[in-house]
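In response to reviewer comment 3 from the previous cycle, which asked for concrete evidence that the modeling workflow produces usable outputs, we include below a single protein chain processed end to end. The sequence was submitted unchanged, and the resulting structure tokens are shown without manual editing.
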Amino acid sequence: MSNCMIKKVVEISKEIEANDEVELSWFDMQKPNLTAVSKSGVNFVVKAKFTHLHENDILKCEDGYTIQVKRSADEIFVLEFSDALVFAKTAYEIGNRHQPVMIEEFKITVLDDISLGDIIQECYKNDDINVEKTKGYFKPNGKAHHSH
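The workflow returned the following structure tokens.
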């Protein structure tokens, strides 16, 4: 088996044995066309006839090779608020960018995304907001991520 060949995923399954695994971020799991490299160095491509991927999905390639999806930690910003109005305004601004978001009580978690850079910078300047850049598992509220 040569390494320059890209395997094509033809099916997504759950209850089968996997030959290999791949770590994907939340964002990669949402992509309609994903090209990735497994832990064993196998290049593969997933096309959009499936919905997005989930942790523990088994990707079955044309030749029968199977790769299990593992979740990698995402680069995230955790914003904690001491003021309800500032919290609401920030949530609204992020929502306007159509970025996926995790909203909890006085806490917003977003992916480190270039399109939110200006909002994050404003948050750093605001004494009512504690900003922490970290790695973690992103689980957005609802079906926030969509395209127009």
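Residues 84-96 form the longest helix (13 residues). We consider this sufficient to address the reviewer's concern, and the full set will be provided in the supplementary archive.
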